[in-house]
Amino acid sequence: QVQLVESGGGLVQPGGSLRISCTASGRTFSTYTISWFRQAPGKERDFVALISGSGLNTFYAASVKGRFTISRENAKNMVYLQMNSLHPEETATYYCAARASVRSTRPRDYDYWGQGTQVTVSS
To answer: For residue 118, which of 98, 97, 95, 96 has the smallest C-alpha distance?
Structure first.
């Protein structure tokens, strides 16, 4: 079992950068694929990025590729999402999620979720 806690959200200006973090509990953290999703009010939860358990493989939504970077430190049970060149439409609650299986971009395939961290992009 894995428990996830996101942190690092906040207010950032358009074009700015922010790094959010996901702290996990559990001794088998390195066996989980971790993904970031985001959800704006009244909208569906969308996939943002994922990283394999080893950290060797990553995958990004087309809308964030080249601007966002996902990484992990298994020794610290941490996953990060570095977000650059943020747009106002990326204002959302960002969630990390864990899956003990092959990668997926569908929220319904994930077994464990954090409570989310709010990211607001506004001047």
So the answer is: 95
- Going from the C-alpha of 4 to that of each of 43, 94, 98, the distances in angstroms are 23, 12, 8
Express each pLDDT in 34-48 by its tens digit: 999 999 999 999 999
What is the spatial distance between Cα 81 and Cα 55, in angstroms, rounded to a whole number?
13
Strands 10-12 and 117-121: parallel
8 Å CB contact between 70 and 81? yes
Alpha-carbon gap, residue 92 to 116, rounded angstroms: 9
- What's the number of CA atoms in the CB half-sphere (13 Å) around residue 1? 1
Q: Are 20 and 86 in contact (CB under 8 A)?
A: no
What is the structure's pLDDT at 1? Answer: 84
